[in-house]
Amino acid sequence: MTSSTDAVGMTGAAGSAGKADAASPAGTAGAAGMSGAGGSGRAGLEGSGGLDADALGEQSAGAAGGPGLRGAFGGLGADTSGGLGVAGTAGAAGTAGSVDAPGGAGAVDAAGSVDAAGAPGGVGGSGVGHRVDVLLLERLGRDPGRTALVCADGTVVSAGELRERVLAVAAALGARGLGPGDRVAVYHERSVEFVAAVLGVACAGAAHAAFDVADPPARTLGMLEDCAPRAVLTSRALRDRLDGCAVPMLTDDEYRTGQPVPPPVDGSPDDPVALIFTSGSTGRPKASLISHRALVSRMNALQTTHPMTEDDRLVHHTTCTFDMYLAEIYWPLLSGATLVLSAPGGQRDADHLAALIRDHHVTTMYFGVSLLELFLLARDESERYDGLRQVLTGGEPLPADLVHRFHARSTASLTNLYGPSECTIHCTAWMCPRDPALDTVLIGSAVPDTELWVLDDDGRPVPEGEPGELYIGGAGLALGYLDRPELTAERFLQSPPVAPGRRLYRSGDLVRARPGGALEFLGRVDRQVKIRGVRIELGEIESTARRCAGVRQAVVVAHGTGLEKALAAFVVPEVPSAPAAELTASVRESLRGWLPPTMVPATVDLLDALPFTPNGKVDRLLLESRAARTTPSRPAPAADAGVEELGVEELVAAVWCEALGLDSVKPDDDFFDLGGNSYKVVETVTRLRERLSAEIPLAALLEEPTVRGFAEEIRRVTGRA
Fold it and tell me: Does the pLDDT of residue 354 top 50, yes or no?
């Protein structure tokens, strides 16, 4: 691949970002170096539909030409490989692509804006303009008649109407004494009510924690206990799912009655605005506390590198357990673009997403890597997406082949984002070049207000090209973990030797810097894995499995790659003679009740004893190898029989056997328990579409994953007996 990275640094008060020219051979950013007219300390938010500076109050550092919201970082330019460029030395605005940042070759820096005291966030200034609620209310109120939100069912909500609904939520919370320092849970399906609740909590000064209504209620109740909210915002249809929750619940018809009066702004930019729960190695999910300052910084970073205007439309379809949903909601609303809501569950249906893109003239889209793969597989290869202008992806390693296939079907730019929830959405970006020889996809260099360090085991910078652990600093860092001081101290390092006076997050990810500074992701240092974009701690699944009746020990491993990556559980029973089939079925059923579907192992096998390495540790490599070997091989395809010969349920069972490599399935077997995944969903539904000559939505199998239930859903949607 082309590795030239002659980045052009930004001037200290850079202005509008250049529009990505995805149609060009290199796919480079149109305005190399994104340099702007210096002079205004707030110019970083002007032009190209930026997060408007007028709403920011006095966000600049004071002197004209001083660092504004973005700070005086030195270079997120365009490189000749199509990447977003290389960060220059902190504070040396305008330098070209140097990675000789203070601290040595291991520093890849785009910050220069972390204050000397090392306060969370670190953007210069402390005005209320750093608060996302201030920016939001100003933007919604500026042009109340414009369309702010469109639903899949055709519902249109103007900016003024959305502002009133948001303020009604804030007023209802304020009337109950909730404000800065409080936490509020949001338990809604994706809807106007969900958006209004999330934004309303912020405007009340509190922090929200959003919970996926598809998760097992037992898991949600456990996280609610950890979150300790003072209220739960939900609907009448959903409140019964949380039976036993001691927290007061407000339904949407109750909090809509609040008076839409702007609340007083008396909070700090470093107040929490959101909690993001991720899997925890101890068996207990952990919540990152995201501040107003961090969220504003990341929205500005997105708007700087991928500007949107009022002519743009972006789809919100990402589940609320993945921090990208924050960008999908806030970014379009703050930039004046239109937010398009997918239907509940629609994020799993490629047909639904394709219709949204086409019917609502969507220009900007985020796809997790696996979902992008699924989307392209599910849609006809001749179908193009040239209406899209820019597509963002991330969540797991991006294969070069997928980049090529996307570029073959769209003129849109494709940008690979990387970043743990602890750094708020993303901390690096790399615009994928339109290069036929591309064989390695990078995660790129630091986004604005961010510094990156690649360090060895002793915390020292590694030479360029050498692998090391990635440490992240700057404005986007979370405040820490909720009520987990020991874990916060372990992962968020105060004033480390390489960065005195700053905070760095230890990511646990191995990377290496390519010539010019763009980073290549190499894998995990610890045992955390990602399954189709979902960040999973194997320890949490193991801890949960050990709670299952009849289980003495449990080990969970991941095997395979890409869409074929799967989890396998190995358990040692308390009673050696326990019936294998009964215990494995019981364990799987218990895990399904306690864990979200992405964390339930595809297979559960019994062992008499766990294997150990010579040094006394569990031999996970051996178990991974065993899991890969025991994956069922695919038999020869069955005869191409149709519904006339077999009947719907029998045909479904036959196709499942073909797709999953099984000899037989039972009416109540679960597709995903049998080893199904997103790729297999596409394969299975495509085969059934061909044999039945009927349109079957992908979501049908996701919503009805048993043979009996899926067959019944096919009968319903096709009208077949």
Answer: yes
Give how far Cα 685 sits from Cα of 537, 566, 669, Å. 31, 20, 17
DSSP 399-446: -HHHHHHHHTT--SEEEEEE--GGGSS-SEEEEPP--TT------BEE
Residue the block writes with tokens 């990078």:
442
Cα–Cα distances (Å) from 665 to 592, 646, 670, in that order, read 19, 15, 9
pLDDT value at position 361?
96
Looking at every residue in the chain, the average pLDDT score rounds to: 78
Quickly tell me which residue has 């039945």 as its tokens: 692
549 exposed, middle or buried (CB, 10 Å; 0-12, 13-18, 19+)? exposed
Buried b (16+ CB within 10 A) or exposed e, 188-216: bbbbbbbbbbbbbbbbbbbbbbbbbbbbb
Q: How far apart are CA 610 and CA 710, in angstroms?
A: 37
Model pTM score? 0.71
The dihedral built from the CA positions of residue 181, 185, 189 and 193, taken in this order, carries a sign that is: negative
Record the tokens describing residue 441, joined without a space.
């996809």
With cut-offs at 50, 70 and 90, classify the pLDDT of residue 10.
Answer: very low
Check: CB of residue 231 under 8 Å from CB of residue 248.
yes
Q: How far apart are CA 183 and CA 26, in angstroms?
A: 46
Asked whether 535 and 528 are in contact (CB, 8 A), the reply is yes
Instruction: For residue 672, give the nearest of 528, 529, 527, 532 by alpha carbon.
Output: 532
Q: Compute the distance between CA of residue 587 and CA of residue 544 in angstroms, rounded to an integer.
A: 10
Q: How far, rounded to the nearest angstrom, does the alpha carbon of residue 530 sit from its chain's CA centroid?
A: 11
Q: In the predicted model, what is the mean pLDDT of residues 37-52? A: 33
523: helix, strand or coil: strand
In 31-131, where does DSSP find H-type helix? none
Smallest CA-to-CA distance from 110 within 92, 134, 127, 125 is with 92
What's the pLDDT band for 314 if we cut at 50, 70, 90?
very high
Please indicate whether residue 515 or residue 54 has the higher confidence score (pLDDT): 515
Whose tokens are 């984002």? That residue is 417
pLDDT at residue number 703: 77
Which helix H or strand E contains 507, and what residues bound it?
strand 503-513
pLDDT band of residue 14 (cuts 50, 70, 90) is very low
Residue 520 to residue 526: CA distance in whole angstroms: 18
Q: What is the mean pLDDT of residues 211-232?
A: 91
Residue with tokens 């191995």: 510
Helices 132-142 and 324-335 pack at an angle, to 10 degrees, of 40
| Residue pointed to by tokens 């294969």 | 399
How far is 252 from 505, CA to CA, in rounded Å? Answer: 38
Res 26 pLDDT > 50: no
For residue 555, the surrounding DSSP H or E stretch is strand 551-559
Q: Looking at residue 634, what is its pLDDT?
A: 37
Q: How far apart are CA 343 and CA 338, in angstroms?
A: 16
Residue ranges in 549-647 assigned as alpha helix (H):
580-594, 620-629, 643-646
pLDDT tens profile 359-412: 999 999 999 887 898 889 888 889 999 999 999 999 888 888 899 999 999 999
- How many angstroms separate the CA atoms of 597 and 595, rounded? 6
Pairing of strands 183-187, 207-210: parallel
C-beta separation of 185 from 229 below 8 A = yes
| pLDDT band (50, 70, 90) for residue 6 | very low
In eight-state DSSP terms, residue 452 is E
The whole-number pLDDT of residue 305 equals 94
Determine the average pLDDT of the residues in 321-332.
95
What SS3 state is found at 611?
Answer: coil
DSSP 365: E
Residues 1-11: what's their mean pLDDT?
Answer: 28
Decide: 74 and 91 in contact? Cβ < 8 Å.
yes
53: amino acid identity, one letter: A
Structure tokens at 221: 């109740």
Token duo for residue 313: 């439309």
What's the pLDDT at 263?
65
